[in-house]
Amino acid sequence: MKNTFGSNLCLTIFGESHGRAVGAVLDGMAAGCPVDEAFLARCMDARRARGDGLSTARVEADAIQILSGVREGRTTGTPITLMIENQNTRSGDYARTAALLRPGHADYTAYAKYHGFQDARGGGHFSGRITAGLVAGGGIVLAALEQAGIQISTHIRRCAGVEDIPFAQDDPAALAAQLAQLKQKTEGFALLDGAAEEPMKAAIRAAGSEGDSVGGILETAILGLPAGVGEPFFDSVESVLAHMAFSIPAVKGIEFGAGFGFADLRGSQANDPFRVDEVGRITTATNQNAGINGGITNGMPVLFRTVVKPTPSIYKEQQTVDYPARENATLSIHGRHDPCIVPRAAIVQSCAAALAIGDFLCARYGEGWMTLPHTFFQEEG
Amino acid sequence: MKNTFGSNLCLTIFGESHGRAVGAVLDGMAAGCPVDEAFLARCMDARRARGDGLSTARVEADAIQILSGVREGRTTGTPITLMIENQNTRSGDYARTAALLRPGHADYTAYAKYHGFQDARGGGHFSGRITAGLVAGGGIVLAALEQAGIQISTHIRRCAGVEDIPFAQDDPAALAAQLAQLKQKTEGFALLDGAAEEPMKAAIRAAGSEGDSVGGILETAILGLPAGVGEPFFDSVESVLAHMAFSIPAVKGIEFGAGFGFADLRGSQANDPFRVDEVGRITTATNQNAGINGGITNGMPVLFRTVVKPTPSIYKEQQTVDYPARENATLSIHGRHDPCIVPRAAIVQSCAAALAIGDFLCARYGEGWMTLPHTFFQEEG
Amino acid sequence: MKNTFGSNLCLTIFGESHGRAVGAVLDGMAAGCPVDEAFLARCMDARRARGDGLSTARVEADAIQILSGVREGRTTGTPITLMIENQNTRSGDYARTAALLRPGHADYTAYAKYHGFQDARGGGHFSGRITAGLVAGGGIVLAALEQAGIQISTHIRRCAGVEDIPFAQDDPAALAAQLAQLKQKTEGFALLDGAAEEPMKAAIRAAGSEGDSVGGILETAILGLPAGVGEPFFDSVESVLAHMAFSIPAVKGIEFGAGFGFADLRGSQANDPFRVDEVGRITTATNQNAGINGGITNGMPVLFRTVVKPTPSIYKEQQTVDYPARENATLSIHGRHDPCIVPRAAIVQSCAAALAIGDFLCARYGEGWMTLPHTFFQEEG
Amino acid sequence: MKNTFGSNLCLTIFGESHGRAVGAVLDGMAAGCPVDEAFLARCMDARRARGDGLSTARVEADAIQILSGVREGRTTGTPITLMIENQNTRSGDYARTAALLRPGHADYTAYAKYHGFQDARGGGHFSGRITAGLVAGGGIVLAALEQAGIQISTHIRRCAGVEDIPFAQDDPAALAAQLAQLKQKTEGFALLDGAAEEPMKAAIRAAGSEGDSVGGILETAILGLPAGVGEPFFDSVESVLAHMAFSIPAVKGIEFGAGFGFADLRGSQANDPFRVDEVGRITTATNQNAGINGGITNGMPVLFRTVVKPTPSIYKEQQTVDYPARENATLSIHGRHDPCIVPRAAIVQSCAAALAIGDFLCARYGEGWMTLPHTFFQEEG
């Protein structure tokens, strides 16, 4: 399916960095869901570059034009087409070094797959800019989930060597408070620890000023999912969330709950004891399995972390190959690049997760889950 | 799609731990591929329990019965049905504790999804035993890949606190030698470091003797893949391999190449410089990106590690819930369980990866890739 | 997807005519649905040959063995594997003429696709026998639909030049009575006009006695579907029912409602006027559009007819090609063949339609539609 | 998948009749295929209304804007987004009768599915206008097929009671000449018999002048397909072509080759004898099976006919229901409508078939079939 994700709720993304537009078609939304363009604009704004030494100097308004599927502020039930025109393109920057493969980037693999016909300007279809369509479409689902009482939020767990406070994995109430806190923080980085922001920014700027870049770790929480969502094997909740997460450029790893830490735990430490809470609901005393047992949700929060590698486009001189000449060469990249994409990727990861979860809910509750009464999922859980 | 994986090369798995049979239907194999039943038997043997204090005392021959799709030792091109009858089932062990949810297991989520109609005996469809079908079907693909010059192998990178030698990520020749070494090791654990085997076994047995279990990390290498395989976004090679890896019960994390280590690297360290080798091929000097740039293979080895959590079924007393009574309870599991499934899961991960790669090759080269001349993929790369 | 049908409710079929077994895996049934083996046996019996001069002398009991997914007479929610072992195979009949391509059959196309590795015995995977798996799996869905108040039934509209009474397309009550009548007719052909049966049988026997075969037309009705099922374009109800119907070997045409007759109607004759009935429901005064407008059901009965070509395997001498020799030749078929498969195909068409409708209901109402209260779909309509 | 068709070569369509734009995303084209905008414009022109009493007075230029996936006249290998802005919309015509369900149209089913949130203006997403995206995307595939030596063409077999000369089903050379003739006919209706055009137009105008509409039959031929394409059961060539054909609004039946005529043939008449031709190729002496045996192509031309019902929007007064009031009412439609859409639908059917065939070729030959040498498919056949 290449550029389409989902079976029942499907997103198809399109566009190239320096082409006419990027965007997406979202198909499978029930009719009648509110589409809050101001909310979508805030999502787009969260992934927008600011040209502040923390992200690329290519700054665009990224206004979403809705070509179909929405009328009078509500979904019509048919495909929603979202177009974001490219404005601030300076392809000349790339032309100078077009023959030289940028290490860590998809320049060479694009040649191998597309035989030179790819639109290489600004990374073309491999550019992080393509995630604008993912945010536009995923943002609509994110809002529908929120209306259903299911919240998805992502913070920067670690970046440029600076740590944030971890999500309260084992404590749904504390986690809910953290999500509320992130929601209120409309400026700056998605961090729980306000004291981490300046040191993190400083560390990113420091790397950027050396012509280098840094990576980091994003942590996402999904709160309010009922138990019983997902499939035992190939469509386990982990499988589908991971599938989606690795669609985000630069993600190279994902772990759920205790994650790689499980390697050094014993079963008696790793198992989450079941408990009956005061209202007769089944919960777990800990949540190392991140709300998923046997691929299926158990009603506890779903939590995962991804690692985002350092932006491959750096200004430092690098060894590489002149592709047409097939000889070794030295590359100094010009153009405008982010010293770190981790902060901008947070909203992308939330939107990606929303699409995956939305598709699961379609499978379980049918195409109309977005219109179920507000309390439905809470009662199900 | 629930229990089916793949778009062009598809595996559908079925069965329950204590039902009549487990198995799989593999559809999409080209006609005329040799099916070496002795090789399949060795794959099945590698995931087989041995009742030696290292794995469950439930020991079965796991003979594969081929119901369709193979004639005179070759694929016919139509669906291959593989059935493994269950023999050594002792459901009585489970009946005693059927009301009690086993922590870390899918008992509760199965109730949430299947409302009590699930076959709960021995974990039913959630049992690791279902991976027998995955190995049976994936083994056929593994052999087809090997004939095409593409090798997939998995070793135990870490288990019960004992480490093996890592795969030689940056050096394809050294890695090929490691794969050859693993191939020759037909007995015991899949380890590169012979000296690690006894300490690892001892540590597993120690945990088992305490009624506990341990987890670990598996590392898989894919060698010989040409450049240009995969898709930029949703069907990135990482996405599909991760989707498949999380289908394996107990896997809770995956990382490619430098993986979570990328969080603390700078771009100048993380980028793999391109080089032209002596025969004019483009390679990379290092391989931290694990042979994948922008979701597409670059011809270098693909490498990933998964974390396998400790077996949830332990003999130690645990806190849990009596599901019908909806009250807190104490559980002491009987039955037969593995103190560690990591060693048995190695072949499962190789077979899972083979299915994912086989499907990618169908998309790129058509349904007949298995019958392309032996040298085709090497020349493509 | 080759041998798998459906997105949410999926059937995978397997087997060869003279192999060990044929069968199917049905995935996506909700847990807790009753599986009435006696009903399934009746479905299988309806497509069974009888060796009575009307169908092939290859007579088999076709007992279904359930390998997984059903426990204590109810679905568990996980894949249901249905195996029917082949018993009465006489491959020798085919060996004599194996080099000669049977006209109208898939012998040549199998060579073109499978390069000689196909299992050619008895038509292999192209045999009508493979529909046994379709009936086994589809029968389970047919029963689930019936429990939900949705009835599917097929009769022989025309065969060997003899006509049956048409379904009462425009009158749901009369149609319901016809379906009840067909249900009670457990012996002989699926006909509304009892007086047509003997002439039809005589005409089939006459063709058979001349070493020839005949075709016919099947008519299927789906009663009780609520309005609002289906999709506007690619997954129109007609699209998916047709996709499924053409999976049945020998089907070469399908038409809905007035069908090809629409070519000679005017819009004023073809449009079905909407009416409000006595209980305030919207119906149509006529039903030439067969319950489907714009690809979506309108609550009126869905009706379609397929044409089934005459069985290609005939005893009359035919002109053909010796494939290995690549020269023209003359063929006289031996073996056991049906002079007409239309009567046996009726249940196949009902089961096929059930699978398509079941998948649509999953998309609309979620995986649990089979467990919705009996009156749900009536109220929806 | 709702509005997406295809597994490897995928088209997603979007838009509403009176919304901002209609269009499509075509994903899966190999890189480097020429995109001839003049050819696409001719395809669009062939489905364009002319306001000449034969089609609706809503006349639009239907210029295709390519938003992504094409650079310097060639495909880049990534998704191709095609947008056609709506210009000549007069929603006011509809507002007057918005409460009244148009018989034969999707007004009621849209209510049932979308609960009143659908964009009802001009039929919204159910309008024939949405096929503009299908033609834009399918046209690109049509051109790629033609470059590969595979031709698809559709003529009006019958319309308003006037017949055209049938395609020369049994004679590939004569059929090729017919296709060449149609290709040269760039003006007026797609007819082989020039003498039929004026009577056909007169009959359409006559119906239109009475405020009525007429239907007809389209016939499509696919020439140059190699043998061996398609799958035995669910993805038979008939299944997938039919699936696609029923996506076209107003299509209510499809038949291949002898089609419904098979009901009255005997096997000895229906079977196409195999023959070896002068260059050693296997062909059939007749072609009643329309180039498909067992769901798979045999190298002979593929032929099918669809019936297109009379346009449901007619000016004659009709009985219907006032939906909000739930009471019977009388409807007189205003707005601009085609008295017959058959002539405009011919190119839609060719483009739809091209998409289906293109997807099959991806499955068989991989994503790069469009770039195989010109003679490849001829040699395969």
UniProtKB/TrEMBL annotation, chains A, B, C, D:
PANTHER family: CHORISMATE SYNTHASE. The gene is aroC. It comes from the Bacteria. It comes from Faecalibacterium gallinarum. The lineage of its organism: Bacteria, Bacillati, Bacillota, Clostridia, Eubacteriales. This reaction introduces a second double bond into the aromatic ring system. Reduced FMN (FMNH(2)). CDD domains: Chorismate_synthase (cd07304). This is Chorismate synthase. The keyword Zinc-finger does not apply. It catalyses: 5-O-(1-carboxyvinyl)-3-phosphoshikimate = chorismate + phosphate. GO terms for cellular component: cytosol. GO terms for biological process: amino acid biosynthetic process; aromatic amino acid family biosynthetic process; chorismate biosynthetic process. FMN binds at residues 125-127, 294, 309-313, 336.
